[in-house]
Amino acid sequence: MKKLFLVLSFFTTFVVTSTYADISEIIQEKIEIFFLAVEKGDVDIVKKLIKLKVLEEKDLNRQNVSGDTALTWASHKGHIEIVELLLLEGADADIQDKNGKTALMHASNEGHIEIAELLVLEEADVNRQNTYGNTALMHASSQGHPELVELLLLEEADVDIQGQQEKTALIWASIGGHIEVVKLLLKSGADVGIQDENGRKAINYVSNKNLANLLSEGKCQRIRGKLGLSTKSCWKDN
Questions:
Q1: How far is CA 200 from CA 31, 118, 172, in A?
Q2: Which of 67, 101, 138, 141 gives 173 a disulfide partner, CB atoms 3.0 to 4.6 angstroms apart?
């Protein structure tokens, strides 16, 4: 991190002594330093850049060539202190990268529950879809992160949105064999009958007996519930 401090010292001196002709160079250098500090998780450097007023508000939301902002990158990397700092400074939680992924999607995919909690407190859109139609709930479900799935469901994530290949969060969780996630989705009313673009339901992707039983019980509960009948007989011990 010593190198970053040296670069920052040089940069701040350069800013003070520069002329109008140097502005484009200054802008480029400060963004490069900013993103490098975020990537390395260097909270001190990020704080210094903000404290010295080196960064303008628009710089917090500036996107690199991949469409990442400092916030999406920090959320992906799991740098919670930097995420908290950027949010306090007014970073936009819903900016999407070139693949349409938001900071919340990155955190959900990587299993960074504390970062996801910070983002939903800032009212990040839990139902926003990326370029392929996937949501944060789908990312968390496909990777098998039950705590994140529970958080997103509490924040009213739509359990039956269909994304890439017309798959739902339940289908992605079933493909991954994530039993605890499947349980959470079923308890939130996930529709076991939804088909993807290949005409396959969640149960068509599983080989695990307990998981297959869960999905069958979910179907039973849904049908009996629609008929106004007790669903108690649907559930078995798994």
A1: 46, 36, 12
A2: 141
pTM for this predicted structure: 0.81
Q: What is the pLDDT of residues 119-135, one digit of tens each?
A: 999 999 999 999 999 99
Amino acid in position 63: Q
Q: How far apart are CA 220 and CA 139, in angstroms?
A: 27
Cα-based distances in Å from 79 to 19, 39, 124: 35, 9, 18
Task: Supply angle C-alpha 105, 109, 114, rounded to 5.
Answer: 80
CA 185 to chain centre: 18
**Whole-number pLDDT of residue 18:** 47
CA 121 to chain CA centroid, Å, is: 14
Side chain identity at residue 186, one-letter code: L
Report the C-alpha gap between 152 and 147 in whole angstroms.
9
163 CB-near residues (< 8 Å, 6+ apart):
129, 130, 132, 133, 134, 135, 138
Phi/psi-derived region of residue 34, left when phi > 0, alpha when psi is between -120 and 50, beta in every other case = alpha
pLDDT digits (tens, 9 = 90+) for 166-209: 999 999 999 999 999 999 999 998 999 999 999 999 999 998 88
pLDDT tens-digit series, residues 216-236? 876 555 644 554 544 454 555
Provide the sign of the torsion angle of the four alpha carbons 170, 176, 182, 185, taken in this order.
negative
